[in-house]
Automatic annotation (TrEMBL):
PROSITE patterns: FIDO. This is Fido domain-containing protein. Residues 221-375 form the Fido domain. Pfam families: Fic. InterPro entries: Fido, Fido-like_dom_sf, Fido_containing. One of its GO terms (molecular function) is ATP binding. Residues 30-47 have a biased composition (Low complexity). Keywords: ATP-binding, Nucleotide-binding. The keyword ATP-binding applies. The active site is at H315. ATP binds at D319, G320, N321, G322, R323, M324, S325, R326.
Length: 414
């Protein structure tokens, strides 16, 4: 468990009310590499960008914005979307206006020629998805607040406005926060109301930060960026055993119980091994992107799913791992597919959890036994990500074809 007993909630990697963190006895160790020590002050990273403005400036160069992270930084990168074999059957069974590759190609073509009208429609749908992502990701952690209040806070954050987490008991919305806390079996007092507001504010700010750096500034995902994002996510949350922006120094295990089933428990990677695993994860991601740039073939769904899954398996922080993993997933998707995959609704929590648990068992068998590029523990989750991308792909097709009455991409397009 994380935090004080009277305020604690379930760990985020485990992501759901049925999952708990416990301290194991003697797990095995992989690496003792040092954690990055560079720190960024909260004031240096607290000012958020207006995403509607910053994304709008990037949009006309092609969306998704494909730029190289190698050699000549920011040079255009050229990709053909090619789904991995394990996703092709999944895609064939989805009811979409076109296949994902055609939809993404149409979006790139239309964004380059459609101007403000195309961006306004694209941003309207993108903002809804970003807000739903924050709400759903918090929901599966029993964090944050209801959708209406989340929407109100997130709109301000994503438009570059500051939001004060403090609220008076005389505020007209105060009781709505209390009611949501009680409904989700949390204590309905002023400290928890403020905490629930912080959980929304911090999550939206951390997501804004990663989009700004990775998607818009074209920075490569790095340990330093992840540590900064975690520092934003946990700012002033004040949980025990959680150092914002630092890897955990204590051991944890994951347990999960479904009604009528025996409790399942698995030990997470040793704390001393976390920095080494994180270093390897970033190196593998850089190598995968470099290979995609060289071959000009890209499967954004497998890429994003692999590194969400790898992060969840490492569980590098004392808390915040579930939300961080879903931000990694969606920032990579936004950068390379141009849309989001929103995970966390009431109806898909158990499915998501079951997939993560099954993947963890495969990861445990393959880790240190199978070469990284041949590992398969993320493949089922990649199929889930593609399924959950249906709404995002439909939204892209809608704005990408609106000026042509829904007609598809022309011959010879990028």
């Amino acid at each position: 468990m994380v935090g004080h007993p009277h305020q604690s909630r379930k760990s985020l990697t485990e992501a759901f009310p049925d999952i708990n963190i416990a301290r194991p006895h003697s797990p095995a160790q992989k690496s003792t590499a040092s954690s990055p020590t560079k720190k960024t002050s909260s004031t240096a990273i607290s000012k958020m960008q207006d995403l509607s403005t910053t994304i709008g400036k990037t949009f006309a160069s092609g969306w998704p914005s494909w730029r190289s992270i190698r050699g000549c930084h920011n040079a255009p990168a050229h990709f053909t979307i090619r789904l991995a074999e394990h996703l092709r059957e999944e895609a064939a069974g989805m009811v979409l206006p076109e296949d994902p590759a055609t939809i993404i190609a149409q979006a790139r073509q239309e964004s380059q020629r459609g101007g403000v009208a195309s961006f306004e429609k694209a941003w309207e749908e993108m903002e809804k998805s970003l807000i739903t992502l924050v709400y759903g990701s918090n929901l599966i952690e029993t964090a944050g607040t209801n959708f209406r209040l989340t929407l109100k806070i997130c709109r301000d954050i994503f438009r570059g406005k500051e939001v004060d987490p403090n609220i008076s008991e005389r505020d007209p919305e105060y009781q709505e926060y209390v009611d949501n806390l009680i409904k989700t079996q949390r204590k309905g007092d002023i400290p928890n109301v403020i905490r629930s507001r912080r959980e929304v504010i911090n999550h939206a700010k951390a997501l804004n930060f990663l989009i700004d750096r990775i998607v818009l500034d074209n920075m490569a995902l790095s340990e330093e960026l992840l540590l900064q994002a975690h520092r934003i996510l946990q700012d002033n949350i004040n949980d025990d055993d959680v150092a914002p922006g630092q890897y955990r120094e204590h051991e944890v295990a994951v347990s999960y119980t479904k009604p009528g089933q025996k409790r399942q428990r698995s030990i997470c990677i040793r704390a001393k091994a976390v920095p080494g695993y994180m270093k390897d994860m970033i190196e593998h991601l850089d190598n995968d992107i470099a290979a995609a740039e060289k071959s000009e073939d890209l499967d954004p769904y497998t890429l994003a799913a692999r590194y969400h899954h790898q992060f969840v398996m490492i569980h590098p922080f004392g808390d915040g791992n579930g939300r961080m993993s879903r931000m990694i997933l969606n920032v990579l998707l936004l950068k390379y597919a141009g849309h989001l995959s929103v995970i966390g609704s009431d109806c898909d929590k158990d499915e998501y959890l079951d997939i993560v648990c099954r993947g963890q068992k495969i990861f445990s068998r393959e880790d240190m036994e199978v070469d990284f590029e041949k590992q398969t523990s993320h493949l089922e989750f990649a199929r889930h990500v593609l399924r959950k991308s249906k709404a995002g792909l439909e939204d892209m097709w809608s704005w990408a074809t609106q000026r042509k009455g829904g007609k598809g991409i022309s011959q010879g397009s990028d």
